[in-house]
Amino acid sequence: MQYRNGVAAAAAEEETGVILGVDGGTTTTVCVCLPAASAAGGSPEKVPVLARAVAGCSNHNSVGEIAARETLEQVMAEALSKAGADHSAVRAVCLAVSGVNHPTDKQRILNWLRDIFPSHVKFYVENDAVAALASGTMGKLHGCVLIAGTGTIAYGFTEDGREARAAGAGPVLGDWGSGYGIAAQALTAVIRAHDGRGPPTNLSESILDKLKLSSPDELIGWTYADPSWARIAALVPIVVSSAEEGDEVANKILSNSVEELADSVIAVVRRLSLCGKEGKDSFPLVMVGGVLESNKGWDIAGKVTNCISKVFPGAHPIRPEN
Amino acid sequence: MQYRNGVAAAAAEEETGVILGVDGGTTTTVCVCLPAASAAGGSPEKVPVLARAVAGCSNHNSVGEIAARETLEQVMAEALSKAGADHSAVRAVCLAVSGVNHPTDKQRILNWLRDIFPSHVKFYVENDAVAALASGTMGKLHGCVLIAGTGTIAYGFTEDGREARAAGAGPVLGDWGSGYGIAAQALTAVIRAHDGRGPPTNLSESILDKLKLSSPDELIGWTYADPSWARIAALVPIVVSSAEEGDEVANKILSNSVEELADSVIAVVRRLSLCGKEGKDSFPLVMVGGVLESNKGWDIAGKVTNCISKVFPGAHPIRPEN
After folding, report:
1. The pTM is what?
2. Are A220 and B173 inside 8 Å of each other by CB?
3. Chain B, nearest residue to A215 by Cα
4. Over the stretch A68-96, which tens digit does the pLDDT of each residue have?
5. Where is the signal peptide (chains A, B) (predicted)?
6. Which of A130, A233, B59, B272 qualifies as a FRET site for B90, CA 20 to 30 Å off?
7. Measured between alpha carbons, how far is B256 from B252 in angstroms, rounded to an integer?
8. How far is B165 from chain A (nearest CA, A)?
9. Buried-state track B86-99, b at ≥16 Cβ within 10 A, e below 16
């Protein structure tokens, strides 16, 4: 099963015009504009990118549907404009967006795309995990991908087209291994240390310093002043630094998150039997997202891989370049 | 230290007109209109209530500042109207509202009250926990109060005027013992059972039935469609029923919540030494809110009291009538 094949088939019919590819995350959304001809064949490394545009969050669960659509519309318009093209040149749109969890999410986005593009344009709407997996496997949809950025999701595909996912349900529904989850646990630890329910932690001083607040009580107002998940998740580097400096509370938060992230991959691999009947078959494990990339001292990605390898020794970690 | 004394002193100066008393929660806000003369003395049981009005959430952290103000303004206007009075008859306004966590919260509400009432009106703005404690101690601010409704907070006062609080920081900041916290854990358990990260639970069927959804995947859209905390917390009775029927996951969620609620009281009592030097002095422990009231089989309040009494045998539980 090839992720690129669908797009390529559409492009092959019409060798002029452009294709828009969007990777929509909870913090950052990237749109690339490619010549339609390039997608019809050839190696994915050699696809010429005509233009690239970057915008903020396009996850409707985080910022609401209107803001998410505005971001997607704006980032596509900007990429087209940079490429010197307009909507009439578009042959296909490939949207891989976080927050696409249910057929109704996909249908809503498809209906909206049909409103803004000419009727002959082909649309492909998927969860961003699908694009993330393809980015690490040269387009082949086989194996498991773990995204841990502002949000987190594990998504897996078998060669015969079955798929499964775990986590990716957002902060209310327990994505504790995500950047948001890690940072929310750190903020909670500061509140608990302050009111006497939890042990003291260096996170208190470092987080208050970073946010220029004078007391943990002010964290409550800060937290609810803006519901954006990305704003909370931006505190992850402070948690990692505190853990590296030996803070026990920060270390415990990161260790719990490693376990959560590994559990989501293990659940997917088990449901799809990606590891074969004996549990030892090799499968690609693509790992992407800020939580897995940004740290060198406290190596979250390395520890997640270790946890998974203990259960499935055939897991073959792949870290695609950005 | 008497909560009623401040209001009474204001009223004593002017024996005509009315006083508004508002208890503002995250699910329900109640306003009573009393004759100013009545507050100047006499027993609190005998205060004649001229009118009573009920509205929704007035916690600005849950629904935002504009909606919270509208609720407060509307509930006060309705109580006045039912009492056949208008703004010019008001002598004092006593607002006890959840979400008042910091002096800036209080100041913001005071500024707004000054805009809508005549300049001679006296204002008293507190966290709703202050009114809840007073409701159980005949107005005396001494002891500890635990509120566990949609949100949760523990608030304590010493006879010499010191005060301390624990929890009350909302769902992002770990109020796991609250109605919202219990229900969010239950929703998370359904997602985890569905994607293979957690054990199966009867909560899946009972919650999907209640919400008329056909698959746990639809819970994600349902959860983020409306950010109101009260809507999530309304699922608590289902968690309690499942626990009563023996569901292990539901039992674990409630047991964790009992521990969280007890921990918040223990932290406050310890910081204020409400239990005396030997740890055995008696103190009032007022317990209010839907989570502590609604269940008979799985007795959350009883179990919280047991946890606290093991540490502080002098805790004297009081359950005020509604």
Report:
1. 0.88
2. yes
3. B102
4. 999 999 999 999 999 999 999 999 999 99
5. none
6. B59
7. 6
8. 7
9. eeebbbbbbbbbbb
Q: Is the pLDDT of residue A192 over 70?
A: yes
Instruction: For residue B221, give the nearest of A102, A168, A267 by CB distance.
Output: A102
Give the strand pairing for B29-35 and B51-55. antiparallel
Say if residues B148 and B291 touch (Cβ distance below 8 Å): yes
Query: Distance between CA A68 and CA A60 in Å, rounded?
Result: 5
The three-class DSSP label of residue A321 is coil
Ramachandran assignment for A168, one of left (phi > 0), alpha (psi -120 to 50 degrees), beta (any other): left
Q: Using the predicted structure, report yes or no on whether residue B283 has a pLDDT greater than 50.
A: yes
B190 → chain A, closest CA residue: A173
Q: Tell me the pairing of strands B29-35 and B18-24.
A: antiparallel
Contact A191 B184 (CB under 8 A): no
Task: Residue B273: count other Cβ atoms within 10 Å of its Cβ.
Answer: 13
DSSP summary character for residue B108: H
Chain B: closest CA distance from residue A188 (Å): 5
Dist CA B222 CA B185 (whole Å)? 15
Q: Which domains does chain A have, with CATH numbers?
A: 3-126 (3.30.420.40), 141-322 (3.30.420.40)
**Helix, coil or strand: residue A90:** strand
Place of tokens 């006879």: B159
